Amino acid sequence: MRIWCCFCFGEEEEDNSRGYKKNMRDPILGNNGEESPDENPAFDWRAIFDGVDVGGAGASRSRADNVGVRRNEEIDFDINWLLSDVEARNGNYSGERMLNVNLNLGLSEEASSSSTVQKEDPDRDSCSKRPKVNSFSLDWDNHLLQETSYLCPMNEGGGDVSLSNFLDATDDKGKDIGISKMEDLDVRMDLTDDLLHMVFSFLDHIDLCRAASVCRQWRAASSHEDFWRYLNFENKQISSDQFEDMCRRYPNATAVNLYGTLNIHPLAMKAVSSLRNLEALTLGRGQLGETFFQALTDCHMLKSLTVNDATLGNGIQEIPIYHDRLRLLQLVKCRVLRVSVRCPQLETLSLKRSSMPHAVLNCPLLHDLDIASCHKLSDAAIRSAATACPLLESLDMSNCSCVSDETLREIAQTCASLRVLDASYCPNISLESVRLVMLTVLKLHSCEGITSASMAAIAHSYMLEVLELDNCSLLTSVSLDLPRLQNIRLVHCRKFIDLNLHSGMLSSITVSNCPLLQRINITSSALKKLVLQKQESLTTIILQCPNLLEVDLTECESLTNSICEVFGDGGGCPVLKSLILDNCESLTAVAFCSTSLVSLSLAGCRALISLQLRCSYLEQVSLDGCDHLEIASFSPVGLRSLNLGICPKMSVLNIEAPQMASLELKGCGVLSEASINCPLLTSFDASFCSQLKDDCLSATTSSCPLIESLVLMSCPSVGCDGLLSLHSLPNLTYLDLSYTFLVNLQPVYESCLRLKVLKLQACKYLTDTSLEPLYKENALPALCELDLSYGTLCQSAIEELLACCTHLTHVSLNGCVNMHDLNWGFTGDQLSRIPSVGIAPHGSSLVEQHFPNEQPKRLLENLNCVGCPNIKKVVIPMAQGFLLSSLNLSLSANLKEVDIACYNLCFLNLSNCCSLESLQLECPRLSSLFLQSCNIDEEAVEAAISRCTMLETLDVRFCPKICPPSMGRLRAACPSLKRIFSSLVPS
């Protein structure tokens, strides 16, 4: 097989800047490859689509620029670009379509069908054969690379020679030798015509025009008549000569679009006279003379004619349209006095928005008639036109204000097969005595004559499937029993009160903005979703919908407590899963007993006082805004989590939830009775439940033995008995007793042996000896985080705790007024023996190796002393704070001296320490240092950060002694700095 890469060579190879031999006839232009003189330029059909000049030098330049080709340049065609472009246009091209393609790339001496065609006369019909598509290997790309690498010899150094380098090689005289070597090997790369044909079938006309400029093979492939069956010149500036040339080149075109072109009449005449296979013609934006419609009879294959926004004839004469094979005729927004249509095969006719006062139809097979917005058509003209089509199935007469009931009656008698009727915006119809038995779709938008009496006529349409009654302002009630009704719309019916529907197939109900609607009665076995939002007057709902799954009654403010009977067991909705009653402000007591309900939303029901749910499968409940709820019972429910903290008036609570894992009662300040039976509960937050007593806590811990996190913050009624009941919680690891009146922590020490986190914020009644069991008796051996913020412990108790309770990793002492200097330093003799920082081979510090008995091992990693007003000095040597990684001393207004040497410290916050004067740091891993609003000078900061070799963030905003120009000195002192936050102007 000869493999030929589609290159376009320069003048020496082809003697033509576009790569075509002069003695070859151009397959598209038909000018033997030569450009016509400027005074008589040849027609270039690409200019129509690309928007370039036709015939002149500008056209040549534009065509060259479109494909990136100029004289003496080669086009290195990449098949991956071609396929990726098609893939981008048509989704994943590598799917089913690609599986049926064969690149037919092989290395053999036998010429392929495509290479054989290459050697034939260029005047051949290169695209006469139909595309032949074979199987395509998914690894064609690798196969192509293997074959091209076979063509590229190895250089002397052993490196690969790329195909492009091989083709670009020249000898000593500058002569191209790459191509000669290719010819010697008698191997060419070629894209088969079948592959091109298939790929080009995805391109539009503009891309086909651009592809034609790549090479001779592409030009011939892009001109194949299969791609030009539809000549689309919509809004293109094409002359009569150009269009005539296109018709001559593609006489088998079947569809033409001339909408928006200049002088549509001569172009349309040329189309119907030249294209004998024309089946579809689209015209518009211009004037069509009477001769065009007379010439239509000679276009025997025409099946579709569309004329949009045009003047027919001179606008004051009758236009006859006679054709034996026409199936579709559209005269949309046309200006004409009278139209006579005689087309025995016509099936669809549209005269929409046209200004004709008269229309004569002789179309015995017409099925679809659209005369919408034909305001000048009289009632008699509409009656005459419609009754002349006995097989009519669809009639659109919307916005024909003169239509009367008499016309509808005659149409109903004549057109027995009428199935679709749109009579919207026809104020004179009331459907009195109208019987449309076979009707399936009826649209009556904004029909002022439609009232409740009209329902008697609609009830005879037992085949009706779709009924639309939007904006029927006089309609007060709808009562229908239609077995096939599927869809009904009632929007903006201002006087509508009662809806009564019985239909086994009803699946969609749209009722909106009917402010007086009070009663709804629906029976349907197909309805699955019902949305009745913002029906302020709705009070009564009766449903018999065995398959109803979702109901949305948001902002139905008049609904009463009886709604619970509708959606509970036995209420007609046995499989209901989702119910939304948001902002139904008349609901006061809600009680649901359902074995199917999964989701319930009562958000914004501010009048709700009592809630009782017996829904064993209920997984989601929303009570946002139910701030008056007092009594709640969830027994049983399938909830996994519940937040009742938004119900501040709740006093009685009963929960039985076998699957619940998280319960939050935060803010239920008056809750005094609570029965909680949740055997899988792991997190319980009863913050600010000031009335929660020991007996309630004991019962909860007994029925919920798996609790791991317990928050009793601001629960002053909990005492020793309640805390002793915590021994029933063997997995308890988190306990928050902040803001309580505890005096003795002994019940906690005895009951919570696995406790890891203990929070005692603002427990001001604890004595100085309350924490002694922690560091003297090894109580709570698993404790690693302790929060004593805003407490009243003395300095000595705090120092002993920090010194002896060495297993703590996180300690918070924020706001402790008795917290004075934080000095962990050694004596002078010990300081002289502190070794340099280092890590022992087994992971222990060198400090620990030198002082195995003198200092206990501290595990402290995080220390917070925010807002301690009496701290003046902080000294932490390397041996004492070796594992410390975060230290926060911000808002300590009297802090003056900080001397810290911590190997692992990464975060240090000294912001708003306005008295800070001395700062000494030896923290090789410090990455963030905050000194915001400190009075320290820049020399002290420079010296401090010089020993922090990994510092990245420094915050010195609002420091009055540090000016922005000194940022360079700080960066020089610490080269690792990446971010310095400073004030824009000196304070």
From TrEMBL:
Please state the gene responsible for encoding this protein.
FBL15
Tell me where on the tree of life, at the top rank, the source sits: Eukaryota
InterPro entries for the chain: F-box-like_dom_sf, F-box_dom, FBL15-like, FBXL15_LRR, Leu-rich_rpt_Cys-con_subtyp, LRR_dom_sf
**What organism is this sequence from?**
Nicotiana attenuata
The protein, known as: F-boxlrr-repeat protein 15
Q: Which Pfam families match?
A: DUF7885 (PF25372), F-box-like (PF12937)
CDD domains cross-referenced by the UniProt entry:
F-box_FBXO41
Q: Which SMART domains match?
A: FBOX, LRR_CC
- Entry-linked PROSITE patterns: FBOX
Q: Which residues form the F-box domain?
A: 185-231
Region Disordered: start-end pairs: 110-131
Basic and acidic residues bias locations: 118-128
